[in-house]
Write a structure and sequence with these properties.
The complex is a heterodimer of chains A (533) and B (144).
Chain A lengths: L6 E2 L12 E5 L5 E8 L4 H12 L8 H8 L3 H13 L3 E6 L4 E7 H8 L4 E4 L5 E4 L5 E2 L1 H4 L2 E5 L5 H14 L14 H7 L12 E6 L6 H10 L6 E6 L14 H14 L4 E6 L4 H12 L8 E4 L1 E4 L5 H16 L3 E5 L21 E2 L7 E11 L2 E7 L11 E7 L14 E4 L2 E4 L6 E5 L2 E5 L5 H16 L6 H7 L7 E2 L23 E2 L1 H9 L9
Parallel strand pairs in A: 10-12, 10-13, 11-12, 13-15, 15-17, 17-21
Antiparallel strand pairs in A: 1-8, 2-6, 3-5, 3-9, 4-5, 6-7, 14-16, 17-18, 19-20, 22-23, 24-25
Helix pairs in contact in A: 9-12, 10-11
Chain B lengths: L2 E6 L5 E8 L5 H9 L7 H8 L3 H13 L3 E6 L4 E7 H7 L3 E7 L4 E6 L6 H4 L2 E5 L8 E2 L4
Antiparallel strand pairs in B: 1-5, 2-4, 2-7, 3-4, 5-6
Classes of the chains: A alpha/beta (533), B alpha+beta (144).
Chain lengths: 533, 144
């Protein structure tokens, strides 16, 4: 590989992040993708055009006209691609109209080629990032062609943007210390999950609309729990991808979901479907998972949602139909019921009055998962109530404004204008009695109904393994179990700032939290439909 | 979420749409199956009965090509055809204008103005089109 003379790329000099501490070197064989921005053919004219557009004077060019006039010069593209190949980098994508070339290479190679020292840093606000200091270097012949190199470090937009988003999303580091924290294994023991099975042969699909995981963290986590590392595969949907940043980001969601499923059912394969956080991305991720003929998930866990009123009818219908397909295929889907009580809106601007069910948990074709708070003494639960940490999150739950009461639910509720009630089931969710997980190199205690969906998904993988066939469309089964079977421990105390818990089903904790062994026995002994389609 | 319009989407911007097709058979029939507690269908059986008709998929693909769009992938089981084109072409085809927004938290997104109009040639076979609107839709439910 040609070692050539290099010149600094103008404007690429990075100052250190104030207060950030270097942690150490990056793994040299880790692969990164970087995007090179190339100069346009006619930059001055382009600026004038864009100004005209922004001022509301759209003068539409055809794709071809635009590419010819403002795209990258093919000779420039060729020069960059040749440079990449000469230096052992892979050309992932080259686009004249976007004026970008995406290159892939290892940390070691990219560092050498661009003359940068990449290292891991701890951010003063928590979390880690890949950073560099000083300029990026390029060969003199490319200095005028390449306008920027992006992706060598991942500190800028991601951090502040995601942190602010996370405030909106309710992920925040609590000033309070948790009263207690539990590994997912301990929660499984407290809920008497079936033993002697690992979920072997089952695949659990997890939908993620952001964030990512690092395999090294998963290895450490499962090793610390004394468990084998489950097989985890990332599936890219609509260009979404496994993109870990730091612990205050959506990585917390991704890691919680994977670690809870894997700790409860270490024999499963976990397929994580990464998609953009748009209705298109969400819908495409669900249909990709449901109809995935490669991984064939028998259970799907979803911990992302929004109040029903925020969805378009087209999105609600498309997603519900995708869940109906899952039900017909024998795939069980669990969805978190929300973390903002009966309102389902985080307090602040944009909050809408009244109570709202969260979607997709309110789809009648999924199992909505609510939250509880547990008190544990001598390794046993001595009290369990509705999760409601006053002013700091409470389980979602209430009644859909869209979906009528399904037949299987009419036995337990018929109030509220004949609409579907949520949640269907529940489990420990309070961050104050949360789950000990590992996120981007840090130990965290995380809760939210986000934890309950993967908890039930893991439990279902165990049930499927024991029963030798999938639970499938779960709601008619769960609602059909005799209360005397004790499959659910009924939560009767507490409220979610809109609805009260009480004996039997309620709009805070549904049928209750699981008693795993009794649930297994009750499902195993129920009569099975044998009629042909 | 309060958001500010920044300007029209650049007509050359590359956009990928997911076109959701109508199912071959009415989904009420599928719901009745679920109500009766019948055993699950295989993925192949589902696709054959309740997926998109391959003829409908072909119709959407032909429409796309005739209008200079690229077909990225098609799945009868998912009832989905993914198409790519420029913002200018797609806005014209779906009878809308595309506008860029920035929300208070800095998130950039795009949204169409008014209602998306499904082209007449496709109205019979298309249920919905996603991807012109890139507003963030969901929040995660993990709390630390």
């Amino acid at each position: 590989m040609a070692e050539q003379q290099r010149v600094p790329l103008p404007g690429s000099d990075k100052q250190p992040v104030r207060g950030a501490e270097p942690i150490g070197d990056l793994y040299p064989a880790e692969r990164l993708e970087v995007t090179l921005q190339l100069r346009p053919r006619d930059g001055h004219e382009l600026a004038a055009r864009v100004d005209g557009l922004a001022a509301g004077r759209p003068e539409i060019l055809s794709r071809e006209e635009f590419g010819q006039q403002f795209g990258a010069d093919p000779a420039d593209l060729a020069a960059v691609e040749a440079f990449a190949r000469d230096n052992g980098l892979v050309v992932v994508d080259a686009s004249a109209s976007k004026r970008t070339v995406v290159l892939s290479g290892t940390v070691a190679r990219l560092s050498a080629v661009f003359g940068v020292a990449l290292a891991a840093y701890a951010h003063p606000d928590g979390g880690t990032f890949r950073g560099r200091q000083g300029p990026i270097y390029v060969p003199p012949a490319l200095a005028n062609i390449v306008q920027g190199v992006f992706g060598l470090d991942d500190r800028p937009a991601a951090r502040s943007h995601l942190r602010r988003l996370s405030d909106l999303d309710g992920i925040q580091i609590l000033a309070k210390r948790p009263r207690a924290s539990f590994s997912p294994i301990q929660i499984g023991q407290l809920y008497d999950f079936p033993t002697g099975v690992t979920g072997q042969g089952q695949c659990v699909g997890i939908i993620e609309l952001g964030g990512g995981f690092r395999t090294a963290d998963l290895k450490t986590y499962f090793q610390q729990l004394g468990l084998p590392m489950p097989t985890v595969v990332a599936v890219s949907v609509d260009h979404g991808r496994n993109q870990p940043t730091g612990p205050n980001s959506a990585d917390a969601e991704v890691m919680l979901d994977i670690e809870v499923v894997g700790a409860v059912a270490p024999g499963v394969k976990i397929a994580v479907y990464f998609a953009p956080n748009t209705d298109q991305g969400f819908i495409d991720a669900i249909t990709a998972a449901v109809h995935d003929t490669v991984n064939r998930p028998s259970v799907i866990s979803i911990s992302w949602g929004a109040p029903e009123v925020q969805w378009t009818q087209a999105s609600l219908t498309a997603m519900d139909q995708a869940f109906q397909a899952a039900a017909a295929l024998g795939v069980t889907v669990y969805c978190a019921a929300g973390d903002n009580g009966a309102s389902d809106f985080p307090p602040g601007p944009g909050q809408q009055p009244g109570n709202h069910a969260d979607f997709p948990a309110s789809s009648p074709h999924v199992v909505g998962c609510g939250g509880t708070t547990i008190t544990v003494t001598n390794n046993a639960i001595t009290n369990e109530v509705v999760w409601n940490d006053t002013g700091d999150g409470a389980t979602g739950g209430g009644f859909s404004a869209v979906f009528p009461t399904p037949t299987w639910q009419t036995t337990v509720q018929s109030g509220q204008g004949g609409k579907r009630g949520v949640p269907d089931v529940s489990g420990d969710a309070s961050p104050l009695t949360g789950y000990a997980v590992r996120v981007d190199g840090q130990s965290e205690v995380i809760g939210g109904t986000s934890a309950v969906a993967p908890l039930w998904a893991g439990l279902t993988a165990l049930l499927n393994n024991k029963l030798g066939k999938p639970l499938g469309f779960a709601n008619p089964v769960l609602y059909g179990l005799a209360p005397s079977a004790g499959a659910f421990f009924d939560i009767t105390q507490g409220n979610n700032n809109g609805f009260n818990a009480g004996p039997g089903w309620d709009a805070c904790t549904g049928l209750g939290r699981p008693d795993g062994a009794k649930l297994l026995a009750a499902i195993a002994s129920r009569p099975v439909a044998v009629s042909a389609p | 979420m309060a958001a500010r319009a920044i300007g029209p989407t650049h007509p050359d911007e590359h956009i990928e749409l997911s076109v959701l097709l109508k199912p071959r058979r009415p989904l009420d029939e599928l719901e009745a199956r679920l109500d009766q507690g019948l055993p699950p269908l295989t993925r192949e059986e589902y696709a054959a009965r309740y997926g998109a008709d391959p003829a409908d998929v072909a119709r959407v693909e032909a429409f796309a090509r005739a209008h200079g769009l690229q077909v990225i992938e098609s799945s009868p089981a998912r009832r989905t055809v993914r198409l790519a084109g420029t913002a200018g072409d797609l806005a014209a085809l779906f009878g809308t204008q595309l506008v860029e927004y920035q929300s208070e938290d800095g998130t950039r997104f795009r949204a169409p103005t008014g209602t998306i109009r499904i082209p007449d040639e496709l109205a019979e076979v298309v249920q919905a089109v996603f991807g012109l609107d890139t507003r963030p839709v969901a929040r995660r439910r993990a709390r630390g």
